[in-house]
Design a protein that fits this description.
The structure holds two protein chains of two kinds. Chain A is an all-alpha fold. Chain A has one domain: MetI-like fold, CATH 1.10.3720. Chain A is built from 13 helices and no strands. By secondary structure, chain B is of the alpha+beta class. Chain B is globular. Chain B folds into two domains: 229 residues, Rossmann fold; 89 residues, Nucleic acid-binding proteins (OB fold (Dihydrolipoamide Acetyltransferase, E2P), Beta Barrel), CATH 2.40.50.140. The two termini of chain B are 39 Å apart. A six-stranded mixed sheet of chain B has the order 6-7-8-3-9-10, with helices on both faces. A five-stranded antiparallel sheet of chain B has the order 13-17-14-15-16, with no helix packed on it. A four-stranded antiparallel sheet of chain B has the order 2-1-4-5, covered by helices on one side. The chains are: A mainly alpha, B alpha+beta.
Chain lengths: 290, 334
């Protein structure tokens, strides 16, 4: 694109795609913003008109908002912790020359192909059900009282399910990073007298820093909006114990039929996501510089 | 300290035998070069000594101690890799200090040794840079620095100069030889470049298909090659070989004459080979003439730079009778 002519041409050629993308993004955002300042409740259709900040005050002022915010952060943090540590360990294992490596890799990746509601259902009924779940049977085998996971540890249960789904993603990215480490570097470290732990700490970890950063960033984007797993298992409860911001928006907007307050919650969620993004980029973004 | 002795070392990867049976004795303080064509097992042999590969059978003694099964770190050897294998996220200082840090040396000792290595290798002003910000030659020196600080029994070099450009390669060749004079530590150096082998080595091991073809000083190999392979491999340009009736006149199955052991004439004389000049490569100091000899094929002749033969000229070659190498049917020198 050196000449003025090719530059103009390229702009014209790209314009349709850019315009479609803009409309796609701008229209829903503007509509949400618009609704968030309107009195718009399906239960009370007579009440219409401009609401000012009332919807925002209602959403943010609600004690469940703070709890949802905290739950969101715990959910994101917990899943990140499990997937990064577990993913690193799995990647280290899968990097070993073992028989059936190819098949094993596919098996490890498979949870990622299971749709979130299905995964949640498998866990809800197959594993965590207090009556006929596998874990209940395991507890009974050891003569223990089975745990009612979704009532006793609702948020933890959701974290486990989501982590199970995202572990393959982290494993895959980290394994690729691990395999791109030059064999000679490992051998050099070995010659230099570094044992396995030192090799991991001084050579492998710094090499994987960038991949870990990418895993953190991508997963955070998706984990902030976790919905299906909560909807299928706990329904946000008991009380608000497993409600995150996304689910709170659903509760307010759809379950309570208050479109205005739901929209306000959505806008708040966007703001929160951006704040998290800024903090994240500050914290780990420097790893992305080549 | 630093004698290395291999006895009946064998190495196979599955069914493929890389090294059938090698026994070698490398003396303390020697600079030994493993040279051979690619795939001859020279790098594998070095990695066996380093401990990066397990021997299939045989023993490896370092300073008389059996180290065949010892892990690389315990062997007390240092290796410089072809890709340098520097740690990209560490500064030059940390790279050089790494082996000492792993050995849990006190900080003052580390600093002192790193300073010394940096001074020896002219790296003092680069200590706080990352490897990425260094040139090829500097990276090479960092890799050597990392090897020096460990004060190893022996240095192992795995084709360390093959990623450098020609001019730098000549420089580094000198620097490594100089370093050897200074440190007097045993060095084993792997290369496929026979010029590097000839210029640097105290003794050269010529390898072919996993076998030692000959082990001797550079001039021994040049003057008394044990077989046709060594004769053809050592010396640049390559030795010219002649088979058939012409060789039979010398009671051999084949004979070899080095390009530098000919006299040239423009008129016929007894015992000369007649040929036509093909390409003439003028190097200034020398000229390499590629001569199509009647009935014997293409030969390379080295002559001084002032010769003015041109393409298509007739030329008469007389091989120096004292410098004709004779080989039997199996390729062994007679």
């Amino acid at each position: 694109m050196a000449t003025a002519q090719t530059r103009t041409l390229s702009r014209i050629m790209m314009a349709p795609a850019v315009i479609v993308l803009l409309i796609w993004m701008i229209v829903p955002l503007v509509m949400t913003l618009w609704f968030s300042f309107q009195n718009y409740s399906l239960i009370n259709p007579m009440m219409t008109g401009f609401a000012g900040w009332a919807n925002y005050v209602y959403v943010i002022g609600d004690p469940s908002f703070i709890q949802s915010l905290v739950n969101t952060l715990i959910l994101v943090g917990g899943v990140l912790l499990i997937t990064i540590i577990g993913g690193t360990m799995l990647a280290l294992l899968l990097d070993q020359p073992i028989w059936g490596q190819g098949v094993l890799r596919i098996i490890v990746i498979s949870p990622f192909f299971v749709m979130p509601p299905v995964a949640a259902l498998i866990w809800k009924n197959g594993f965590m059900h207090p009556g006929y779940g596998m874990l209940a049977h395991l507890w009974e085998f050891f003569g223990l009282q089975p745990i009612d996971w979704f009532n006793q540890y609702p948020l933890f249960s959701v974290i486990v399910i989501v982590a199970w789904q995202w572990l393959p993603f982290a494993t895959l990215i980290l394994l690729t990073a691990l395999q791109s480490l030059s064999e000679e570097q490992r051998e050099a470290a070995e010659m230099d007298g570094a044992n396995a732990i030192n090799r991991f700490y001084y050579i492998i970890m710094p090499h994987m820093a960038r991949a870990i950063t990418i895993v953190i960033l991508i997963q955070t984007i998706f984990l902030l909006g976790i919905f299906a797993e909560i909807r299928v298992t706990t329904g946000g409860g008991p009380g608000y114990a497993s409600t995150n911001i996304a689910f709170l928006v659903f509760r307010t907007g759809i379950l309570s039929n208050d479109i205005g307050a739901g929209s306000a919650g959505g806008v708040v969620a966007v703001v929160i996501a951006n704040i998290v993004a800024i903090f994240l980029m500050r914290a780990v973004g420097k790893n992305l510089d080549a | 300290m630093g004698s290395i002795s291999l006895s009946h070392v064998k190495k196979s990867f599955g069914e493929v035998q890389i090294i059938p049976d090698i026994s070698l004795d490398i003396k303390e303080g020697e600079f030994v070069v493993f040279v051979g064509p690619s795939g001859c097992g020279k790098s594998t042999l070095l990695r066996l000594i380093a401990g990066l590969e397990d021997t299939t059978s045989g023993t490896i003694l370092l300073d008389g101690v059996d180290m065949t099964k010892a892990p690389p770190a315990r062997r007390g050897l240092a290796m410089v890799f072809q890709s340098y294998a520097l740690y990209p996220h560490m500064t030059v200082r940390d790279n050089i200090a790494f082996p000492l840090k792993m050995a849990k040396a006190p900080k003052e000792v580390i600093d002192q040794k790193v300073e010394y290595a940096a001074r020896t290798l002219n790296l003092s002003s680069y200590l706080d840079r990352r490897p990425r910000a260094l040139s090829g030659g500097q990276r090479q020196r960092v890799a050597i620095g990392r090897a020096i600080v460990r004060e190893p029994k022996a240095f192992l070099f795995d084709e360390p100069l093959s990623n450098l450009d020609a001019a730098l390669r000549v420089n580094m060749r000198l620097e490594i030889t100089e370093l050897h004079q200074q440190l007097k530590t045993t060095m084993i150096y792997v290369t496929h470049d026979q010029v590097e082998a000839m210029t640097m080595a105290d003794r050269i091991v010529v390898l072919n298909a996993g076998r030692v073809e000959q082990f001797g000083s550079p001039l021994d190999l040049y003057k008394k090659p044990a077989n046709r392979f060594v004769a053809g491999f050592i010396g640049s340009p390559r030795m010219n070989f002649v088979d058939g009736p012409e060789a039979a006149r010398y009671n051999a199955s084949s004979i070899g004459v080095r390009p530098e052991h000919f006299t040239l004439a423009t008129s016929p004389a007894a015992g000369t080979w007649k040929g036509k000049v093909g390409v003439a490569e003028q190097l200034g100091s020398d000229t390499f003439l590629h001569v199509h000899v009647d009935g014997l094929g293409l030969m390379t002749i080295r002559t001084d730079g002032d010769q003015t033969f041109s393409h298509g000229d007739d030329v008469y070659l007389t091989p120096d009778p004292a410098r004709i190498y004779r080989f039997d049917a199996a390729g062994l020198a007679l």
